[in-house]
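In this section we walk through a basic example: taking a raw amino acid sequence and producing a predicted 3D structure, encoded as C-alpha cells. The instruction is simple. Fold the sequence below.
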Amino acid sequence: MEKREYILSEESAEIQLNILCEYYDFELDDLSDKVIDGIDTVLRRLKKAIRRGLLEISIGDENAIDITQNLANPPGKITNLKYKSVTAKSKTILGREAENDNYSRIYALVGFLTGVGKTAIQNLTGIDLIIVECLGAFFLTV
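The resulting C-alpha cell sequence is shown next.
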C-alpha cells in the first residue's frame, strides 16, 4: 500500500480546521456523548484531507468562510467544489429528504452548497465522497 503524502503540517491543518469550527461556533462540549465519537472521527478525517491538500479552509471576503475541496478523482470537468456558507435557505433543502436518510440529506445539502446538485455529488467516489460525507455530517451537526 502506498504511503499517503502530506503537503501540510499537522499544525497548519489544525489552524484550518479551527477556522471551520470557529466560524460555525462549534464545540464538542455542546454535543451529546453519542454524537461526539462520530464527529470526532469526521474532524480527524477532515484534518487528514487538509494535510493532503484535498481541502482548503480560510476566511474570505466579507468574513465569509471559504471552503474548497480539490477532487482527487474528478468525475468530469469539475476539478474542485467550492462550498458556500450554510444558511437557513440551504437547510430548507433538507425538508425534501427523509428524516432518517442521512446520506440523502448530506448529498442534497452539499449539492446545494456547492451548486453542482445532489446527482453530481452522488457520482463522486473514494476519498472525494468521504470528504463530502464528512463535511456534510459536520454541517448537519451545526
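Looking at the output, two observations stand out. The longest strand covers residues 65-70. Strands lie at 55-59, 65-70, 80-83. In the next section we compare this with other chains.
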